[in-house]
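ok trying again, last paste got cut off:
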Amino acid sequence: MAIHTILVTGANGQLGWELGQLAANYPAFKFVFIDRSQLDLSYPESFEKIIQNITPDCIINTAAYTAVDKSETEKEFAFTVNATAVQELARISKELAIPFITYSTDYVFDGEATQPYPISTKVDPINYYGSTKAAGEKMAMEVNENTIIIRTSWVFSSHGNNFVKTMMRLMKERPNLNIVADQKGRPTYAKDLAITTMKMIQAINAGKTIKGVYHFANMGETTWYDFADKIKAIAGLDCVLNPVETKDFPTPAKRPSYSVLDTSKIEQDLAIDIRHWEDALTDCIDHINLNVL
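nice, full thing came through this time. structure:
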């Protein structure tokens, strides 16, 4: 069955919004974007009726509970959105015999590695947010073995709340900032993740079998401190950045010290070259500045 109508949840999030910006570039597809007011992930029992009315040929679930620290206390809510809801979307997709794409996180790993995490690595989350995302992966795969899970990390965009926009704002407001320098990862531009998601859908339409877990992030690894320093340079801002250690910056949820994802499978299966995070960051900051003017 060819994919024609694509249902995208989480329309107002970073990734949902970036897919919305791209939609006009894909005239072969009809996109139906819905936000929390139309499909609330905290009420999975409501999904079936809503989805039956839309009759999609593919579901892309970009909605999630992403408040990492808050999830340590809002446990039931976080689990419903990141696990129970994902399972229900996967189940409905199987019932309709349509592709289901959902997103997970580097936080499903323990953060103790010294080499990039391949997709086969055993999940071992160190905070509750990570455990809800790991549960969502497992529960979705159990009800629908054709589920597609794309794990990503350090997501930023010109839309919504993220590290890049927060840093640009704080660097304008404050003379100096303390930035964690001992956590390593791969930043991901939501626009590039959206483009890759569409390449995946085109590959499925072309008859390629795609299922299971993939990793996607922009090329190159960095620390939060070096990421902030590059934001400062590209945006041309004046602010003194001080490198600090994780232990000096306590948060309710523990953070992985190393969460670099190995993206070789998605590169091979889709025959794509992923651009470096610094190039993606320049693109993103250009978009942010355009919106400000």
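cool. The CA atoms of residues 176 and 240 lie 4 Å apart. Residues 5-161+186-219+260-276 form a domain with the Rossmann fold fold (CATH 3.40.50.720).
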